[in-house]
Give the backbone structure.
Amino acid sequence: LVDLLPQVAVPTGVLLGAEDQLCPVQRLLPFARSIPGATVGIAAGCGHLAPIEVPDIVAGMLRKLGDRAPA
């Protein structure tokens, strides 16, 4: 599936937790950056459960994605 990431053609947001032990930033960042036009964020002090740990950041990213979505 990783080979298909450059073909993603929809607004995409990737939020990585800076403190995520399960999916470390250094492992996932190259994948996130291979998605054309993706918004990539790294949440400081966040682990693996961004919607619970940093809900305001997640909501903000979703709002921005909604603004980019085709009508």
